[in-house]
Each structure stands twice: as structure tokens, then as C-alpha cells.
Amino acid sequence: KEERIVVLETENAVLHLKLAEYQGLAGRSTNEVLQLYAAHGQQMKFQNSVVTQLHGAIKKRLKQDLKSLHSFALELSKDFQRQSKTCLYQVLAAVQGTQLQNEAMQMFQIKAFDLEQSLQEVTERYEKEKQKRKALHNSLIELRGNIRVHCRIRPLLPFDDAAGHSPDRQRNFSEKVAHAADDETVVVKCSRPGHASVNKTFQFERVYNDLESQDAVFADVAPLLTSLLDGYNVCIMAYGQTGSGKTYTMLGPQLEGNLAFSIEEESELGIIPRATQEVFRLISEKPPGSYWVEVSVVEVYNNEIFDLLAKDSCGKVFGIKRDVVTTREGKSDVPLLTHETVENASEFLHLVNKGLQLRVTHPTLVHAHSSRSHLVVTLTITTVVFGDNFGTLWEDEQTSQRLNKEASFTFPQKMRDSKSTSSSRASSPVQLEATEKMKQVKTRLQLVDLAGSECVGMSGVTGAALRETSFINRSLSALADVLGAIAEQRAHVPYRNSKLTHLLQDSVGGDAKLLVMLCISPGQKYLTESMQSLGFGTRARQVQRGQVKKKSFPVPSKGK
Ligand code: ADP
Ligand code: MG
User: Would residue 418 count as lying in a domain?
Assistant: First the structure.
């Protein structure tokens, strides 16, 4: 036990020591803690003061910023107000402007409507006036006569001096025996040896003296072309002996079978080129595309028709014989005849020139002089009329009815044309479809340079020349017979007695307009021929006057 106590006391002492040691340590820690606490307190104090300082500064700064922001916002809103005000003004002004414009627009609309209405009225009135104009023009032409005769006396020319074959060598052949007394009267001084000379006068619708120009002649022809576009067929033919100026009057001065048509020669151009120019001029005044023009050129020689525009397989032009037939509708038609579409007068002249050259050179047409055949240049004008518009184009009832009838049967012809390759106007399927809604009317202008009407005696003439002469005589007699039958208003007009009259059937008689241009050589040498031509003209002129007495029509004498 004592030992045990000693051990325990020792242990107790150690523990005391340890306690003391720990107590010392604890004292130090407490100090340190206290120190730290104090330091902490100081730091806190410091921090607090910094925070307060910062807070103050931030507060102050914020206050400033807020103030400036506020003023800025104020400024901004003021600015915005100002701007929106001006915008508002602008919008208001714009709205007012629009209102004004609307009003103006309405006014304009009303005005446009009024104008449209008056335009429609004017158009209607114009259409009516146009119809009236057509009707008046036609009555004017009819008053002048559907068949009228003009007479042109050419100047004396150097070749008139040649004595010729007359046995009477005492005569002064170049003496001028025919002259124009005024613009309706021809006076011919007829003298026979041993008799006193007598003056014979002839009256025509118009007489041109030897000084009158091609211009003057055409001026009287032009109104007929208006009739042409109004739907009437027109024929203009030159009648007279060889050398009397037929070709000069119809075509113009010719240079080796070639139509001279340079600019300088323009004033010399004859009726055919001028008429074509006029036709194209008249067409240019119409709505585009409603008219087109086709040309054919034929020669009637020895009662046979030659197509002067026919082409061989190589495209070279050569004359082909054609025939003339009467269609079921009673019109004359030349099957397979070449029709070339032309767009203007120069294309036309080019074609006619080709035909004329052929007239001179073609081997089957061997005739010494072009005056031994009839030249017929035909312009076919096709008018396209849409739907029911037909009546308005020709308000004049008769014409309208007549053309309406014709239109319906010319229609299949067009369908055939549009499919044929020979037609120069190719049609697309669309066009074909369109054609079903339109009608077509064809009118014809036939321009004829007749063969010389001289009274060639048949005695002593043989072979080809005899044949030629007899054919010319027969065809001119047939022409005279046709005019005679029309004059006497016979039911039957013998158009088919010769190819010439058959070919001209549609443009001679009925309401077609015919102008016969008598060509007269003024010299004594041609007295007989001139008298014969004047007789023919006088007789033809009576056709429309109804003054025809039953006497035979003067024709070229068939020999002595
Ligand atoms: P046809 O055709 O009737 O046989 P042409 O027209 O060939 O006659 O005329 C014969 C000649 O007379 C030609 O040289 C032509 O130039 C000329 N001639 C005809 N008429 C006139 C005229 N009015 N003015 C001038 N020369 C003309
Ligand atoms: Mg001639």
C-alpha cells in the first residue's frame, strides 16, 4: 500500500507538473486569444469605418448619376416629344395631301370616264361618217358611171414622121389631126382627098391633152382605188393602137422591157405602179394586219393565158399556160395561177418587172412586139374581218350583204391557201384557229395593157402573124360585145367568148368600176385607128348612160 501510495504520489506530482505546464500554456493561449480578439476588434472598427466611407461615397456618386440620368431622360423625352410632334405634323400633312390627291384622282377618273365616253361617241360617229363617206364615194363613182372612158392624146413624136406604107404620099403624116378642145372634148379633123375637111367631136368623162402629165392622169384614177378598198372590184384598161401610149400610160416609159423606176423617173411612172403605191398608202391608214395584197401577172396571147410569175422547180420564173374557169359562185378563177404576196410597192414593181422581162424572152411567147398580147396585172386585196364586225365595215346594206355572201365562200379558199406551201403567207395552227373567227373578202384591181387595136388588114398576112392578128381582133370584139351586152342590160353577158373577157369578168359589169383609157396618136397617119378607138370609147361610155341604140359596137376592122 505504501508503495502504492508512493507511486501514486509520484504520479500525482507528475500530473501536477503537467498541469502546471498546461496551465502555463493555457495562460499564453488566452493572452494570444485576447490579443487576437483585440486586433480583431480594431480591424472590425477599421472595416466599419471604411465601409461607412465607401457607402457614403457610393451614395453620393449614385445620387449624382441618378440626377444626371434623370436630366438626360428628361431631355430625351422632350426631344422625343418634339420629334413625334413634327412627325405627327408630317403625317397629318401627308394625310391631307393624300386626301387632296384622292379627290384629284376622282376628278381625273370622272374626266377620263367622260373622255372615254366622248371618244366612244366620236368613234361611233366616225364609223358612221366612214360608212357615209363610202356610200357617198360610191354614189359619186356611180354618178360618174361604173364604166367610164377617159381619152389621152399623146404628143407628136419623131417616129410619127415616117411615111409608113400608105399609098398616099402627098399627105403630111405628122400633121396633128386630133387634139383636146377642152378637158371633156376631143376634136378630130377628118379630111379625105377631094373633100372639105370636117371636124368630128367626141365627148368623154375626161380628155387629156398631149401636155398633161402622168400625175394628172393618175389624179383621176386614184378615187377608184378608194372604191377598191371599200369592197368593189376595179378594172383600168388602156385601149388604142400600137404606139398610141398604152404602155406609157399604164406602166411608164420602158427601157428594153424593163420598167424604169429610178427616183428621177418617178414622175414618169404610169398608172400601174402609182395605183399600187396608192393602194399601199390607203392600206397603211387601216388597222394593221387587216389587209393583204397578192399579185398575179398574166399575158393573154393568141387566146391563151400565160402565168408570168410561175416558177419552175429551180425557182426560175417562166411562163406557164393556164386556163380560166367559172366557179360555182359564178366568179372567174384561174386555177393554179401564181399569186405572190407583196408588202409594198417596190416589191410589186420588182415582180412586175420579172414578169415583163419574161414577156419579152419566153420562147413560147415569140411575138415581135409586146403590143400583140394583152397584159393583165391583178392585185387581189384580201380584207380580214373579225366576227360580227362585218356589218360595220360596210354599212351600206347592199355592199354588206353582197360581201357577206362572198365572205362565206371565200373562207374555204383561205383555209386551202393557208395550208398550201405555194402561198407565201404561212400560217401557224394558232393562226388557223384564229381564221375560224374571221371572214375574208377579196377584191380585185385588174390593170390591163391591151394589145394594139390597129386595123391590120388580113390580106397578105399569113402564118403566125395572121393567127396573132385574128386572135387580137377576136378578143377586142369580145370585149366590145361584153360592153354592149352590159349596155343593153342583157341577161347574158358573153364573158366566155374570149379568155380576155372571161379573165376580166369580175371587174367589168355589175357594181365593179371600169375605166377605159383610150390612147390616141394625134398624127394624120393614124387617123383611121384613132377614129376607131374614139368610136369604141364613145360606145363604151354609153353603157352607163343607158343611151345605147341597137347598133353594133365598133371593133377593129377585120381586113379590107
Ligand atoms: P403602146 O403601148 O400603145 O404601143 P407606147 O406606150 O409604147 O405605146 O408609146 C409609144 C411611144 O410613145 C413610146 O416611146 C412612149 O414613150 C411615147 N409616149 C407615149 N405616150 C406619151 C406621152 N403622153 N408623152 C410622151 N411620150 C409618150
Ligand atoms: Mg405597148
Answer: no
Residues 152 and 263 in one domain: yes
CA of 218 to the centre of ligand 2 (A): 18
Residue 413 in any domain: the answer is: no
Q: Are residues 199 and 297 in the same domain?
A: yes
Query: Among 390, 383, 399, which residue's Cα sits nearest to residue 137?
Result: 399
282: its cell numbers: 390607203
pLDDT for the residue numbered 273: 92
Q: Are residues 131 and 178 in the same domain?
A: no
Q: Is the pLDDT reported for residue 58 higher than 70?
A: yes
Q: pLDDT for 327-369, tens place per residue?
A: 888 888 999 899 999 999 889 988 888 888 876 544 444 344 5
**Of 508, 482, 510, residue with least CA distance to 494:** 482
CB atoms within 10 A of CB 205: 19
Tell me the per-residue pLDDT of 517-533, one tens digit each, with 9 for 90 and over: 999 999 888 888 999 99
242 Cβ inside 6 Å of ligand 1: yes
Residue 1 lies in a domain: yes
Q: Which domain holds residue 40?
A: 1-144
Residues with CB under 5 A from ligand 2 (ion): 246-247, 371
Cβ of 556 below 6 Å from ligand 1: no
Pick the residue whose CA is nearest to atom 18 on ligand 1: 245
Is the pLDDT assigned to residue 431 strictly greater than 50?
Answer: no
What is the structure's pLDDT at 560? 34
User: Predicted confidence band at 400 (pLDDT cuts at 50, 70, 90)?
Assistant: low
Q: How many CA atoms lie within 13 A of 124 on its CB side?
A: 5
H or E stretch covering 342: strand 340-342
Q: Is the pLDDT of residue 24 over 70?
A: yes
Q: Is 126 in the same domain as 182?
A: no
Q: Where are the alpha helices (DSSP H) in 165-297?
A: 214-229, 246-250, 271-284
CATH number of the domain that residue 327 is part of = 3.40.850.10
Residue in 522, 390, 370 with CA at minimum distance from that of residue 451: 370
Is 242 known to sit in a ligand binding site? yes
- Shared domain for 178 and 95, answered yes or no, is no
Would you say 334 and 503 are in contact if contact means Cβ atoms under 8 Å apart? Answer: yes
- pLDDT on residue 437: 62
Same domain, 127 and 188: no
Residue identifier of the C-alpha nearest atom 20 of ligand 1: 245
- Ramachandran bin of 454, using left for φ above 0, alpha for ψ from -120 to 50, beta for the remaining angles: beta
Asked whether 275 lines ligand 1 (CB < 6 A), one says: no
Mean pLDDT of 448-454: 89
533 lines ligand 1 (CB under 6 A): no
| pLDDT tens figures, 70-81 | 999 999 999 999
One domain for residues 1 and 103: yes
Same domain, 312 and 300: yes
Task: State the total domains in the chain.
Answer: 2
463 domain-assigned: yes
Q: Which atom of ligand 1 is nearest the CA belonging to 519?
A: 3
